[in-house]
Design goal:
A: 15% strand; B: alpha/beta; 7-stranded mixed sheet; 6-stranded mixed sheet
Chain lengths: 285, 603
């Protein structure tokens, strides 16, 4: 854990769920025997993104909403380096929702962690697409006129190969699902519900603590059962399931689907050299 | 210089391109330099499109507006392109029931123009061939008119259509024979032909009135390549060691995506047809960051979407290469036409201030040569590089010498890959504000070394967010020092002609070819020196200032409304042009047109 520590002081609010996620991330990497120089952590813009300089590892802090395609490009250039991307609900369900859709359907070999506090924290508390209706937020004092996006059902509609949900208040549990996600073949989506004591007064830490339950406690729960997973994930009316809700390791990831890369023993970063094109010229004679 | 122009017109979907490609290739293999120019519309079937081939035994890089031979597969060509035909020109068509107007007949008589109506329907019926074979009849007739070897055509047809099976092949050959038979026998032309035109059996040596005379072939051209600018650039991209290509289709950059995608199994490249341009440019950026060479290509509208990401690469000092294939804007504009309207966009886009390189290709040769250089500068300076091209370069058909594969260099700048050197690195080396020339060391994720953050906020030397005044100043100055160094190392623009000439012409991009052709043509009456810019930003003006001093007349030639290179030269060197030849109708400058404009500009 010490290897990942750095001296930059955290700037999150007291009680912010990011502390839990940040801790769980470092622990998961350590338990997977991944040294800081062996990983690439990609952050979007938001409170979560302010974690980019609060730990070690090769890191990237990019443009708002655009972390997934950058991470995907990096992962495809060198599938030997685990790539973990992070985004808030603003980045992922508004600005960058298109990238999320295509990231899941492309099944890129990367992990995506959603820092889900149902608001735009860093810009001081506007509603996100995941904010509940009938709650007054910054810039929507009457509550939002839109309907809340059903995020889990939406994700399942994209035929994901790995869906997990976590809670920022349960670090050991988050460590487990992070590890499972990083080891997953393909795009691993983790929705981490986190408290935002400053701006989110509906899904508070207490609320989440009361409502989450480990899906392994449910009788006969089978994470390979897509329909059941979808229903379980989407139904948060009484309680909220956390854990690895769905996983399918039989689907090839995007890189494996590339016919051009089969038989390759090297990765793209090892292949940068001037190349012979005499053969390619012959069709133009 | 002896050159002729052939133009094939018809609706999209009628096979114009197939005819054009075969004829162009056949002529090249016979020993001619051909230059192909296509016009088409933003639709799939219908409209009116053209495939023009200019032919010479000497180097040519341009198209004429007036035509020696017009081949049209429908009546629209007869209506719309008739007046483009030169005196003594020939029209070949298949519209048996066409009625020429009195005016047209008079015009044709005055200009000694011949129209030949081929009985395509009759031939197809006799051969029991479907209408799609009609184009082969026209092609073969044109072939015969030019006096090109029949066997060469049959070989080409075999190459192009061989995989469609023996029956199809034999049908094609039968059509060819039938078409060529017409040429050798005037009697074969049905009486339904009007006697207003002189019907010519254009056989070499025959004493009939019209033939199309090609200059003598020059065998050196036979081994040249016939490539579009897209294909040339695609070859350059592969040659440069680019391993990942991400792009969203947008005319005129789409054929480049198609080419790269078609070759991916051979080259082993990772190819992603992205869901939008922001994805494409971000994926290229991530791949470059991880340490491979990656590229994206688009046109103006797509580039607009990429500008924030270019700003990102500027701040995190990540090498990036974006090809901007221009077409007329604004907005959707003229999707299938050409322009040079995005120079200022390329040079000035993206919020904030940071160094970038803008360069422009002008033909198939530098479409190939400049890609390795684009990557080299991107990696050496850790900056975004924008490669400008346009529909004219990308879609023209160029007769190109086989690319010299020994010329390119691979330069990766201060990239540290050696394990021993990596161990010595400190995280603060990555964005060290005191780095010489502003270029600090760079190393890749996965390297056993200290780590850093490629930070999109203003940052300190290791990528921690730092909002202090001192840091903001130091980092801005570090990055902008790169701009100064880049300007120092870039080559000056190229000079064609005598530096002491009276008339100085300045331009960039696709105008190069037509300017060289036009200047050569008017050489006897005009002494012109042409200054050609490849590197556009940073902009070097030393050569320009020197030539501007001695020239009596300074002429700017551009395919945009504002004279954008002229604006940059005025900004950087304080020098105005006497004359600006500006075209912004979606068409390139034509060989004959530009000669007239140059003569007028100097009068």
């Amino acid at each position: 854990m010490q290897e990942y520590a750095c001296s930059t002081k955290c700037t999150w609010c007291d009680g912010c769920g990011d502390y839990g996620i940040w801790t769980a991330l470092k622990r998961a990497l350590v338990e997977l025997n991944l040294r800081p120089w062996q990983v690439l952590l990609c952050f979007d813009v938001g409170c979560h993104g302010n974690g980019a300089d609060k730990l070690k590892g090769y890191r990237f802090h990019g443009l708002h909403g655009r972390v997934i395609p950058f991470a995907a490009g990096a992962a495809l250039a060198n599938p030997g380096v685990p790539v973990i991307a992070f985004g808030g609900d603003g980045a992922s369900f508004s600005e960058g929702i298109g990238h999320l859709v295509h990231g899941v359907r492309s099944n890129y070999p990367l992990t995506f962690v959603l820092h889900n506090n149902a608001n735009y924290g860093l810009t001081t508390g506007q509603a996100s697409a995941l904010t509940w209706q009938n709650h007054s937020m910054n810039s929507s004092p009457n509550g939002i006129p839109e309907r809340t996006l059903q995020s889990m059902d939406f994700i399942f509609s994209l035929a994901p190969t790995f869906v997990a949900r976590g809670f920022s208040g349960n670090i050991p549990h988050m460590v487990e699902i992070l590890k499972a996600a990083i080891e997953h073949r393909g795009f691993a989506f983790i929705d981490i519900l986190q408290a935002c004591p400053t701006f989110n007064h509906f899904a508070t830490h207490e609320f989440l603590l009361e409502h989450v339950f480990d899906v392994r406690e449910e009788e006969g729960y089978d994470p390979s059962d897509f329909e059941r997973a979808r229903a379980t994930a989407a139904d948060t009316s009484r309680r909220i399931a956390i854990g690895v809700l769905y996983q399918n390791e039989d689907i090839p990831d995007f890189y494996e689907q590339l016919v051009s890369r089969r038989e390759k023993r090297t990765v793209s970063v090892e292949e940068v050299e001037l190349r012979e094109v005499t053969d390619l010229m012959t069709e133009f004679l | 210089m002896s050159r002729i122009s052939l133009k094939i017109v018809g609706a999209q979907g009628q096979g114009i391109n197939s005819i054009g490609e075969i004829v162009a290739k056949g002529l090249k293999r016979t020993g001619y330099c051909v230059f192909g120019y296509r016009e088409y519309m933003s639709l799939i079937k219908g409209g009116h499109s053209s495939y023009q081939i200019d032919v010479s035994n000497e180097q040519i890089w341009s198209s004429e507006r007036t035509i020696d031979v017009l081949v049209t597969v429908n009546h629209h060509g007869l209506a719309q392109n008739f007046r483009e035909v030169k005196a003594n020109g020939v029209i070949v068509h298949n519209v048996s029931d066409w009625e020429w107007s009195e005016k047209d007949v008079q015009h044709a008589k005055e200009k000694n123009i011949t129209a030949i109506s081929l009985p395509v329907e009759e031939i197809l019926k006799a051969l029991q061939a479907r209408s799609i074979f009609g184009n082969m009849i026209l092609t073969a007739f044109l072939w015969g008119l030019l006096g090109v070897d029949q066997q060469l055509l049959k070989n080409l047809v075999k190459e192009e259509f061989g995989e469609k099976g023996e029956d199809v092949l034999q049908k094609n050959f039968a059509c060819i024979d039938a078409a060529l038979a017409i040429l050798t026998s005037v009697a074969a032309i049905p009486k339904s032909q009007r006697s207003d035109f002189r019907i010519a059996a254009a056989v070499r040596g025959s004493n009939h009135s019209v033939s199309v005379s090609l200059p003598k072939p020059e065998s050196a051209w036979k081994d040249h390549l016939l490539v579009t600018g897209s294909q040339a650039m695609g070859l350059g991209i592969v040659h440069a060691g680019c391993r990942l290509y991400a792009s969203y289709p947008m005319t005129p950059s789409s054929p480049l995506l198609t080419y790269i995608a078609d070759k991916q199994n051979k080259t082993g490249m990772v190819v992603k047809q992205a869901e939008d341009e922001i994805t494409a440019v971000q994926m290229m950026s991530g791949a470059m960051f991880m340490g491979t060479r990656a590229l994206t290509a688009t046109s103006g509208g797509g580039f607009d979407l990429m500008t924030e990401t270019i700003s990102l690469n500027g701040l995190i000092e990540n090498p990036a290469v974006v090809v901007l294939a221009q077409r007329p804007g604004p907005a959707t504009g003229l999707p299938t036409w050409t322009a040079q309207g995005d120079l200022l966009l390329a040079a000035g886009s993206s919020h904030g201030e940071f160094p970038r390189l803008v360069l422009a290709v002008s033909d198939s040769q530098d479409s190939f040569d400049l890609i390795p250089e684009a990557f080299n500068y991107a990696e050496e300076f850790q900056i975004p590089v924008i490669v400008l091209t346009d529909k004219q370069v990308m879609e023209a058909l160029w007769t190109q010498r086989s690319f010299d594969l020994t010329k390119a260099e691979l330069r990766r700048g201060k990239l540290v890959m050696d394990p021993k050197e990596l161990k010595k690195l400190k995280s603060t080396d990555r964005y060290d504000p005191d780095a010489g020339d502003g270029v600090s060391k760079r190393w890749l994720p996965g390297s056993d070394s200290e780590t850093f953050c490629a930070q999109g906020d203003e940052h300190d030397a290791e990528g921690n967010v730092d909002e202090s005044s001192a840091n903001a100043t130091a980092q801005m100055e570090k990055r902008m020092r790169k701009f100064k160094k880049l300007k120092d190392v870039l080559p000056e623009p190229e000079v064609f002609g005598n530096e002491n000439a009276n008339v100085l012409v300045v331009s960039w991009g696709s105008n190069k070819g037509v300017i060289l052709d036009a200047v050569a043509a008017i050489r006897k009456s005009q002494n012109v020196v042409y200054l050609h810019y490849t590197y556009l930003w940073p902009l070097k003006t030393e050569k320009f200032e020197k030539l501007a001093k001695t020239a009596k007349r300074k002429i700017l030639i551009e395919c945009n409304y504002q004279g954008q290179l002229g604006m940059l030269l005025k900004q950087e060197a304080g020098i105005d042009f006497d004359e600006r030849i500006l075209k912004y109708d979606g068409r390139p400058f034509f060989y004959d047109e530009l000669q007239n404009l140059l003569l007028k500009a100097n009068s």
